[in-house]
Design goal:
By secondary structure, the protein is an all-alpha fold. It contains four helices and no strands.
């Protein structure tokens, strides 16, 4: 029996269940709130930074395509291999967003 000053946990609340459903890795049970960025996000960050700093103004269009392509690769990877439901949804949203930009 636990000491009197240690609270005994009750059943999880609705908020706890919701957070678990979105952010807990179903295969390991770990709560995943952030991960180190992968190579595709790194490519997007570099392409975006070079565009913002205006180092290669003559290559701005190509840098935009490279950045968008990297985001699509990242998004598809998250949809297929994302650790949590949130990351899979985020990947799908990014893919739809980027493809919509191409179609316009």
């Amino acid at each position: 029996m636990p000491p009197a000053d240690v609270p005994v946990p009750g059943p999880p609340t609705r908020v706890q269940r919701t957070v678990d459903w979105w952010f807990r890795d179903p295969s390991t049970g770990e709560l995943v709130l952030g991960q180190a960025p992968n190579a595709a996000i790194g490519v997007w960050l570099v392409a975006t930074a070079v565009r913002l700093v205006d180092v290669l103004p003559e290559r701005e269009r190509e840098l935009g395509w490279i950045g968008s392509g990297a985001l699509i690769v990242w998004g598809v990877d998250e949809v297929v291999r994302g650790a949590t439901r949130f990351r899979r949804l985020l990947g799908a949203v990014v893919v739809v967003w980027q493809v919509t930009r191409f179609v316009r």
